[in-house]
Amino acid sequence: MNSKLVLLCICVQMCALASGRPQQWQWEGPIFSNPFLPDRPGAGTTTTTPAPPASSTTVPSPRYLACLRACPTTMEYNPVCGSDSQNYHNHARLDCAARCGQDVVFVRMGTCNAL
Question: Which residue has the higher pLDDT, 50 or 97?
Fold first, then answer.
């Protein structure tokens, strides 16, 4: 177990160096906050756009998808249900979606639909 933790710390440090970001350890805020996670796109700005028609299908933007790919999370499968009625692999992935611009909050542990 300790070797996995050491390997994780080394990977995090290497990612920080590779991205050119200074290494920062911030422990304030939510438990699942991550100092290496990019800021939420458009944070601090307000734009108004009309809502799409109810029949249209929403496709995630390339910027949102890139933000999700850059968000470091574990592969742990511990599903959670978000307020958007979507299942997330774990709580950290739900937090990544929210930080990347998805309007979602935690609803409950487990999948949104009972099996």
Answer: 97
CA distance 87 to 103: 14
In this structure, are residues 96 and 41 in contact, taking their beta carbons and an 8 Å threshold?
Answer: no
Give the mean model confidence (pLDDT) for residues 46-66.
72
Rounded CA-CA distance 82/106 in Å is: 5
Helix (H) or strand (E) holding 107, with range, is strand 106-109
Please give the helix or strand (H or E) that residue 106 lies within, else none.
strand 106-109
Average pLDDT, integer, range 53-71: 82
CA dist 33 and 94 (Å) reads 11
